[in-house]
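Batch job 17 of 40 flagged for manual review because the log was empty.
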Amino acid sequence: MAKWGEGDPRWIVEERADAKNVNNWHWTEKNATAWSTEKIKGLLTGLKIKEDLGECEITEVTKIEGEASASNRKAKLIFFYEWEITANWTGSVGDGKTKYKGTLTIPNLSEENDIKDIDVSVSVKSTNEIAYKLKELMRTTGASIIQECLGQYIRDLKEEYSQGMILSTKDSPTTAKKNVKTATDTNIMNMVDLSVSQQTTTKVGVKIATKKITDEQHFKCRAAELYRAFTEKEMVQAFTRGPVEMEVEKGGTFSILGGNVTGKFVDLVPHEKIVQLWRFKSWPDAHYSTVTLNIKETEEDTVLTFFQAGVPESDYERTREGWRTYYWQSIKQTFAFGSTLL
């Protein structure tokens, strides 16, 4: 039996002004998904690889799927990130008049892999000798430079999200910083850190097990029409059959299904892509999933590729079925997008 005044430190409340997460014992977590998406795009887009042979450049990051977070448990910082990245690149030799195009894929950017073990798969559309040499330039020198850039992302992630995670105690030589460092994109940071930086009276940062949802749906409509179904208030009200509040812009909020689903728009590419921070009202406070909708029109129909990261494991089935029933089926029935495309 412990003596008076001694015992499990989890039950000893220290003299803290904020009375929050004493002894840094409880798990606190910050969602770094939206910030990471913008950071990775910024690091890779426009990246150039030059050698005597020629020059290559990453022109566009076309897909970033995954999630990232920072956690504090017993005063120990834990960083989680898992990403799959696809990008387009171009290359040229000599006067640069002829451009060769290709793609690259990074399937395993994760805290489980050393930065030098990250795979960079490269392909090129042309089949001649110059195209092959440029592909090899991207596969060798380019891969090393890309790994260095992703290493910079990891360092920036740890610097950005370590601040304010470990709180000071009465005996600490310094006090904890009150504000999280401003990110390059302030709007994105405000999305991710809503409750961490502003809602001090709300219980946040509960560690929960999460899963991912992926789906592919085909709609008999134009890409522009499907995009409008997700971004025009009147169309969203029609297929959800209820009041809707929407600010369709980067950083804009939305509320649908009677306020049971809320979130923010992270990225909007007209007729092509929508990225949202998305949550059910019943989920733990400040926990958001990241929803990515990729829209591509084909000769036969319009294909919607759906990805949702960060879904609470306990709510996985309800969320997955909800998308099928209240989104995909309802959109097809309401707007006749399941009919033949004329």
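Reviewer: the log was empty due to a logging misconfiguration, but the result itself is present. Confidence is low (pLDDT under 50) at residues 1-27, 166-206. Unflagging and moving on to job 18.
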